[in-house]
Amino acid sequence: MLSGWLLLCLFAAAQQNNVHIVDARNDQPIVFANVKATDLKSGKISYFITDNEGRINLNIQAPTYLQVSYVGYQNFNDTLKPGKVSVIRLLPEVFSLDEIVVTAQYNPTSTDRSLYSVNVINQLQLQRKAAPDLAGLLRNQLNIRLIEDGSLGTGMSLQGLAGEHVKILVDGVPVIGRLNGSIDLGQVNLQQAKQVEIIEGPMSVIYGSNALAGVINIIPQDISANAFNARASAYYETVGVYNIDAGASLRRKKHAFGLNLGRNFFGGYSSVDTSRTKQWKPKRQLNADLTYTLSLPKASIRTTMSAFDEELRNQGSLQPPYFEKAFDNYFTTRRYIAKADFSSKNTNPFTANVSYSFYQRIRTLFYNDLSILEKTPVEYDTTSFSAFMSRGMYSYRTISGKFGYQAGYDLNAEWGTGERIGNDRQSITDLAGFTSFQYKPFDQLQIQPGIRYAYNSKFSTPVIYALHVKSSPHKNISVRSSFSSGFRAPSLKELYLNFVDVNHDIKGNPQLRPEYSRNIQFQLSHKIEKITYATETEARFFMNNIDDVITLVDLGNDSYSYVNIEQVRTMGYNFGIRSSLYPIFDLRLGYGRTGYNNRINNDFGDKLTWSPEFTGEITGRWDEHKLSVSAFYKYTGKRARIYQDTDGNLLEGKVDDYHNLDLSIMKSFLKDKITFTLGGRNLFDVTNINTNGSAGNGGVHSSGGTSIPVSWGRTFFIKINYTISKNEKNTAAR
C-alpha cells in the first residue's frame, strides 16, 4: 500500500510543471506575477500568481499556452508541453520596444509585427506623467497640437488635421459629443487606462467616418487576476485642481466584477484677477464605470456601463450700479455608455460588440443675486445626441501564417433632438462592410489590401480602399508604406446644430458635402535590442489631400457657419529615436515639420506653410530605491493661420512658437503598494501666445484677437496611489 501511495505521488508530480519566473538579468524571482494558462485542447483558462520564490505549479496534461505579465517587464507568451520544468526569464520593460497593440489588428500583436505604425503610450509612461486626462497626456506628443478654449475645453490636431478628422475611442467605442468639431480631451479621463494607442493617417477602411487623420484608442485595464484588488488615488495641482478616484475588482472562477468611481474639481483660473469671470472656467466632473466579465470555455463576454457628468460655470461680470447681481451660464454635460463585447477563444477569433451612447448638454442661464445668495433660472437650453454602434469581425490566418483575411460589418446610427437643432429630430445612419487580406509570400514581406463599402442615409458613399506593405530587408530594419483613401460625411452638428453662447455663435449648414481624402505614408525604422541596451530610430513621411473640407467661416458680426472649401493639403516628415540603458535611463527624442495648405478658390495656390516641432523625454531610474525622475519637453514652432479681415479679404497670419517643460518624480513604497508622483507642469510659465489670426482651430475665421490661450501657467502637482491585493495563490480563476 505504501509503494502504491509513492507511485501515485510520483505520477502526480510528473503531471506538475514547476514554472519558475525570474528576472532575465539577475535571475532574481519575480513575486506576484500574473500568469494566464490556456489549455489548447480543452480551451480551459486558469489564472495563477507566483509565490515568494517566483514559482507556480501547473497540472499540464496537454499543450498549454502561457502568458506571463508583471508591471515593469515585457509580457511573455509561449506554449508549454506536459512533463517539462520551465524557467521563464522576463526582460524588464525598459528594454521593450514591442508593446502589445490591439487597435486595427487581426489579433493582439507587438508594435514590431504590426502592419501599421502604432505609437503606444504604455503604463509606465502613464504613471510617470500622472496626467489626469487625455489632454495632459498628449500635450508633449510629436505631430499632435492642442487647441484650447476656456469654455469648449481642449481639442487637438493630428498631422495638421483637426476636429472631426480625429477619431477618439475608449475600448473601441467612439466618444460622442463634439463641440466646434472636437471632443473635449479634458472630459476623457485616464483612471483605468492600461495604454493609449495612436495610429496616424486615414483608418477609414476599418473605422469609417471621422478617421481621416487617425485614431486614438484608450485601452482599459483588464480586471486583475487576483481574487480581490482595490486601489485609491488622489491628485492635487496648485492651480486649484482636486481629483480623487477609487476602484475595486473581484474575481470568482468564471465571473469577474469591476467598479471605478471618480470626482474631479477645478476652481477656474485667470492670469489677471477679474473677480468672478475666469478665462479658464470652473468645473466639476463625476464619473463611474461598472464592468462584468463572464469567461466560458470557448468564449468571453464583457459588459460595461459608464457614466460621466460635468458642470462648467461661466460666471458673468457683476452688473452696475451696485455690482451685486450677475447673469451666470451653467453648462451641464452628461455622457452615458452601455457596451457588450463578445470574443471567441480560438486561433481564428470572432469578435463583436454593441454599444449605446447618450450625450446631453444643458445650458441654464441664472440671474444671480449675491446680496441674498439666490440664483433664479431664467433660460434653459437642452441638446441631446444618441448613438448606436454594432461591430463584428472574423479573423482567419493559415497555420503557416502566409495568408489571412479579416471581414466585418460596422453599423453606426446617430440621432439628436433639442432647440439648437430646430426643435426637431435629426438622424444619420451608416452601415458598412469591410474586408482586408494579408499575404506573406516570405518572412521579409507582408502585404495587406483592404476595402470598405458603406450605405449612408444622407450621402452617397464611394468604395474606400487601402494598401499597406511591410518589409524587413534585414532583421533589424523595417519598412512600412501605405496608400489609402478616406471618406467623412458631415456630422449632425455641422449640418443642423446652432451653437450660441456668450463666446460663440456657430450655425449649422444642411447644404454641406462629404469630404474625400487620399493619404501616403512611408516609415523606415532600425532597431537594436540587447540584454542591457535597446534603441530604435525611425524616419517617417506623410501627405494628406482632402477635398471639400468642412470648416468655419465668418458671416459677420462674430457669427460663423460651416462651409466646404476646395482642398486642404498637409505634408510632413519626422525623425525619432528611442533608447534604453538598463538600469540607468530611458530616452525618447523626436523632430518633425508639418506643412499646411488651404486652397480656397486658388487664393493661396499650392504653397505650403511649414511649422517645426521637437520633443524630448528622458527618465533616470534607480530601481533599487523604487525611484525615477522624468522630464517631458516640447517645442512647438510658429505656424500659419488663414483668417479674414474686416474687409472680407483672406490673409495669412502667424501664431507664435512656444516651449513646454514638465517634470515628475515617482517613488514607490511598501512593495509598490503606495506610489507618490510629484512634479511641475509648464515650467516655462507659458499662458498665451501672440497671433494676428483668430483663435479658431485652423479653418477660416475672423481676426478676432491678438493672442490665444495655451495653458494656465506654471503649476506643481502631487499624486498618491494606494493598491491592495488579495491573491488566491495558485488557484484556477476560470
How would you describe what is shown here?
With 734 residues, the chain is mainly β. Helices cover 5% and strands 60% of the residues. The chain has 5 helices and 46 strands. A hairpin with a 6-residue loop joins β5 and β6 (76-80). The longest helix is centred in the N-terminal third of the chain and has 13 residues, at 2-14. It is globular, with a radius of gyration of 27 Å. It starts with a helix and ends in an 8-residue tail after the last strand.
Short summary:
This protein has 734 residues and is mostly beta strands.
Report the major sheet: 22 strands, antiparallel, barrel
| Total DSSP E strands | 46
Nearest-angstrom radius of gyration? 27 Å
Shape: globular
Portion in beta strands: over 45%
For the record, give the distance between the C-alpha atoms at the N and C termini, rounded to a whole number. Answer: 35 Å
Q: Into which percent range does the helicity of residues fall? A: under 10%
* Mean model confidence by pLDDT: 84
Weakly predicted, low-confidence segments: 1-15, 694-704, 729-734
Helical stretch count? 5
Structural class: mainly beta
